[in-house]
Amino acid sequence: MNPTCYMCEKPATSREHAPPRCLFPKREHSLNGKDLRVNMITVPSCDEHNGDKSADDTYLMQILPMSIGLNDVAEHYFQSKVGQVLASNKRLVKSLDESAVPVMVHDIEKDQWAQAMAFKVDMDRLMSVLDMNARAIYFHHHGVKLAAKMSSVTNFSLLEGSPKLNDMVNRGMKMADDMLNDVGASRHGNNPDVFFYRIAREGNVELIEFTFYGTSKVLFTLIHDVRE
Question: Which residue from 18, 69, 61, 65 is spatially nearest to 215, judged by alpha carbons?
Answer without folding.
Answer: 69
